[in-house]
Amino acid sequence: MAAKGSLKLKGKGKGSKGSSSSSSSKFKVFKDWTNWSLQKAKVATHYGFIPLIIIIGMNSDPKPDLFQLLTPV
């Protein structure tokens, strides 16, 4: 009875060992891709936020001048 249990454990160990290395590499690729895309999104947001606000302000109903949009009054 103990021999059957040890055979099952060996089989499970082999299957999980191979799948864990492939899943860890998939996780690493996913993590690297996520970090890369979030860094690009951060840069795009950093440089695009103020121009977006100016464009939205220029397309508003009273049609202010650019100087009126940039002054803090």
Automatic annotation (TrEMBL):
Subcellular location per the Swiss-Prot or TrEMBL entry: Mitochondrion outer membrane
Region named Disordered: 1-26
InterPro entries xref list: Tom7
Compositional bias (Low complexity): 17-26
Main subcellular location: mitochondrion
Protein family membership: Belongs to the Tom7 family.
Membrane topology designation: Single-pass membrane protein
UniProt protein name: Mitochondrial import receptor subunit TOM7-2
Keywords, alphabetical: Membrane, Mitochondrion, Mitochondrion outer membrane, Protein transport, Receptor, Transmembrane, Transmembrane helix, Transport
GO biological-process terms attached to the record: protein transport
GO cellular component: mitochondrial outer membrane
Endpoints of the signal sequence: none
